[in-house]
Each structure stands twice: as C-alpha cells, then as structure tokens.
Amino acid sequence: MPNDIDIFGRSALQLGALIQSGLIDAEHVAEMTLAAIDAAQDRSIFTRVTAGRALTEAREAARRVRTGHPRGPLDGVPIAYKDLFDLDGVVTTAGSTVLAGEPPASADAAIVHALKSAGMVTVGRVNMT
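User: That's the sequence. What structure does it adopt?
Assistant: Structure tokens below.
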C-alpha cells in the first residue's frame, strides 16, 4: 500500500474514494491524521484527541472495506467534532473551563452516532472558535 499518498487537502469524499479503492488503508489514514494532530504547533485547536477510539474505528473500517462491506463513501474517513457535541465517555465543555468538571457524556450525540454509522472515524474534538 503506498505510503506517499497525500491525504491532507482532500475532501471527505475524495479521501473516502481512495480508501474504498484500496489505494490507502483507513488505519493508515487514522495514524497519519493523529500524527499530524500531534505535530501541530497550535495545541489549542483540539480540546480532546481520541486516539484509541480513532484507531479502533479505523481498524473496523479497514476490515469492512477489505471484506467488501463498506458502510458507504465515508467509511474510514477521519472527522473531528466541535466541543459542543457529546462523545461517549468524554466531558463536553463547549470550550469552557467552567464545564471541565462535569461528568462525561453517556452516549454520542445524534450527529456523531449517524456519522459513526456511516463509518467515519472520530479523531477528537476541536475548540469552539
């Protein structure tokens, strides 16, 4: 599998097409995305990186694609949500330190659930600005 494919600067559908075609693996895409997040100079962009969740979801997406059962054109494509949408097990702060002590969400928000059902891979949450 080529490691020199540039995944950044592509639309979600373009990246999904590369994954569906087998030119790049969803797990490799997740690893590249997480590495780019880690290397970013501006640490305030993400309020939370969900690396474990991302890698698990990416492995599942890669398996579905390999076995010919992708969930659709977005299966394996990474996504980050604004810190306004609940992620199961993560505190939703809406970018405010006041909410940091609140209990974690007990379920994904409806939009997160819908996009996860489409196969998108959750890499984390980004600030509100």
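The mean pLDDT is 94.
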